[in-house]
Amino acid sequence: MAATDVEDFIGQNRQLSDLVETFRSVSESEKHWKSRREFIFRNINDYEDPHLDQLLALSMVWANHVFLGCRYDPVLLEKVSEMAEGIVVEDAPVFKTRDELIKQQQQQKR
C-alpha cells in the first residue's frame, strides 16, 4: 500500500481512520505519526481485535527504531522491517553505534 493508497483508504474508511487517530501519542510529531499511521494501516487486517495491541506495539518498535535509533532483537527488527516494507520516511535520522563512532575517530587520528 503506497502513501497515496493509505490516504485513499483513510477517505473510504472514516470510522477505522477515526479509531486509528486515537492511537497517536501526544509526543509524536506529524512526520512521526504519519509514518507510524501508515505502518498501522498497512498491517491492521492481520491484527484485528483482540490482537490490535500487538500491532500497536510493533508500530512503536518500528517507529522508535527509525526515528530514535532504538535497538531491538534482530528477529524483531526483521519482522517490523518486513511489515514496513515500502514506507518511505523522508529525512529519517541516521544513527551510528558507539563502536562505529570510535572506529571513525580512530581513523581520523591516523
TrEMBL record:
InterPro entries: XTBD (IPR021859). Residues 20-110 form the XRN2-binding (XTBD) domain. It comes from the Eukaryota. Signal peptide: none annotated. Belongs to the CARF family. This is XRN2-binding (XTBD) domain-containing protein.
